[in-house]
Specification:
heterodimer; A: 300 residues; 0% strand; B: 279 residues; 13 helices
């Protein structure tokens, strides 16, 4: 890339020579400026707006908004929801990746497509399908009602919709990673007399830990932030079926802007932490993938 | 795939893991989705058609598809620029900017929705300067488009970055040594090579925009026939307990999503195939 590679036949200052595969400096500056301005306008300004509006009436009002009983109830429900949805999708993701990456079977690519399906479904429809299944007019609604079980407009519906929208996160992260890593190390462990579980805990899991973490933080961010799907199944009962994003909506629609943005800033902080952790994990993950592709795998 | 006869796989756990995968997939995804299709099929064709071609519904399709298309196009142009600068150039703050590109993925849609509204409302951060110029953003299709640009942005950048990083400089050098200007090298050598990735990113941004709800409802104004997107119309029908209406419209949108998913898969296959051909 540096001009030092060029043979010193020419007498021009190497620093001023532009490689043939480089753009003129003016074009570079223009492209960088436009890109930075575009991202600033679309990403940084909204970010600043959340905190700016939330703190408009000072720290006291901000603190009062986020410690309001309804806000605390919403935070609690969001934590419960993510606390159920994320572990379930984690177990599923690991199981699915094990079956798909370590074995050969028919219909594998169809299965992978089906696992990705929830990402293609709009959030509103993700909520609607559970209303059609468990709602009063739904298939199982009458039966559920006669047994005193409420799913829609209650916590179970919120959890189900959240599981649906975050369904692929862990699996889609682990499948390519475990496919790249192959099965050699597991074979070695089994040959040396390890049991299946020992092989998984001592060999496979350490190899995929960064991939697991990556999938989990993305899954968690979406689980805590989901709005459309949860909005459809929740029924918006204050203090009962309100997650943090739904609480933000209620406050906003009541023209209680400072409180809405104060609570929204909590979700924004979560998003920023997610981005930081994600960036760090991504780096580790790339190192790991590089290692696993350098060691020849038996799949050749 | 293999020259050696495949030996029997001795790894344990295939049965239980595949069994659990299929069970969980069936209960969480396939069963609820089939509920939608069966409910929709139960409506009968004439009733279904009547619902999905109502003027108010058709107006919402036009708005949703139109705004999504424009947003995806704008993302394709600026996303290409951003991806290019992030891969090829060095400048201060690049790492932070690179990480920030994922913000629309990480930020809950309701938060982006109210933040964008606060910015573009007539008395908002930017809106107050546009108002005297006669430009109304919030509560118009323009505001909807801006929200959709926000949510779709990472798709284009993130699919293009690896494609640009994998470009082989030799091709550009060859173009330059054959007398092509940098502009020609870009349009004739670089652009064709990254076209599959660009189209994939565009299609993903478009698909995401079609179903988007949270970031749009606050800035849209939600006036029937004017600024009412299809997702909102589904919610409105549900809130009025019009389950057949919500189901029929949702089925149309779901079909559109599936067609796009298929297109994206084909584009990715094309991109992958091409890459293998080069390497």
């Amino acid at each position: 890339m540096s001009a030092a590679v060029a043979p010193p036949i020419t007498r021009v200052n190497p620093a001023t020579v532009r490689a043939a595969t480089d753009e003129p400096l003016g074009v570079k500056i223009l492209l960088v400026t436009v890109s930075v301005l575009f991202l600033g306008l679309f990403l940084v300004v909204p970010l600043a707006a959340v905190f700016g509006e939330g703190l408009r009436k000072g720290l006291g009002a901000y603190w009062a908004s986020v410690t309001d009983p309804a806000a605390l109830a919403a935070i609690k429900l969001t934590l419960i929801t993510a606390g159920i949805a994320v572990p379930l999708n984690l177990v599923f993701g690991v199981a699915a990746a094990w079956a798909i990456a370590k074995f050969n079977f028919r219909g594998k690519s169809v299965l992978i497509t089906l696992i990705d399906l929830p990402f293609a479904v709009s959030p509103v429809i993700s909520g609607l399908i559970y209303v059609l299944l468990f709602g009063m007019q739904g298939w199982l609604g009458p039966w559920l009602q006669s047994h005193g079980i409420q799913i829609i407009f209650a916590v179970p519906g919120i959890v189900l919709a959240t599981i649906f929208v975050t369904f692929p996160f862990v699996a889609r992260e682990l499948i390519p990673l475990m496919q790249a890593q192959g099965t050699d190390e597991e074979y070695a462990a089994l040959t040396l007399g390890a049991s299946g579980w020992q092989t998984f805990w001592r060999v496979t899991l350490p190899n995929i830990k960064w991939g697991v973490l990556y999938g989990v933080i993305l899954c968690n961010a979406r689980a805590m932030g989901e709005f459309g799907a949860v909005s459809v199944v929740s029924g918006h009962i204050r203090g009962k079926t309100n997650t943090v994003p739904l609480h933000v909506e209620i406050l906003y629609n009541e023209y209680n802007f400072v409180a809405a943005f104060a609570v929204a800033s909590l979700l924004t902080l979560l998003a920023l932490v997610t981005l930081v952790v994600k960036t760090i994990v991504e780096h580790r993950l790339q190192l790991e993938l590089k290692e696993s592709t350098q060691t020849p795998s038996g799949e050749a | 795939m293999s020259l050696v006869a495949r030996k029997r796989n001795v790894l344990p756990g295939f049965g239980p893991t595949l069994g659990f995968t299929l069970f969980y997939l069936g209960v969480i995804v396939l069963l609820p989705l089939s509920a939608l299709f069966l409910k929709s099929a139960g409506l009968g064709w004439s009733q279904f058609w009547k619902i999905v071609t109502e003027p108010r519904v058709v107006a919402s399709y036009k708005l949703t598809f139109g705004a999504s298309l424009i947003a995806a196009l704008i993302n394709a142009v600026f996303g290409l620029m951003v991806a290019w600068t992030l891969v090829r150039y060095r400048f201060p703050g690049k790492k932070v900017i690179d990480a920030l590109v994922d913000l629309p993925f990480a930020l809950p849609t309701a938060v982006s929705g109210i933040a964008l509204t606060a910015i573009y409302a007539p008395n908002g951060w930017i809106g107050q300067y546009l108002e005297p110029l006669g430009i109304k953003v919030a509560f118009t299709p323009l505001g909807i488009t801006i929200a959709l640009i926000f949510v779709g942005l990472p798709f284009v950048v993130r699919t293009l970055q690896p494609a640009i990083a994998e470009l082989e400089k030799e091709h550009e050098e060859a173009a330059a040594s054959l007398g092509a200007t940098r502009f020609h090298a870009f349009t004739r050598v670089i652009l064709p090579a990254i076209l599959p990735a660009l189209l994939t990113g565009f299609a993903m941004a478009f698909a995401r925009a079609l179903g988007e709800y949270g970031s749009v409802v606050f800035i849209a104004g939600n006036m029937p026939m004017k600024t009412e997107i299809t997702s909102l119309l589904i919610v409105t029908k549900l809130e009025q307990y019009d389950y057949p209406g919500a189901t029929a419209i949702a089925t149309v949108m779901l079909m559109a999503s599936f067609v796009l998913l298929l297109t994206i898969n084909m584009l990715q296959y094309w991109a992958g195939h091409r890459h293998q051909g080069v390497a």
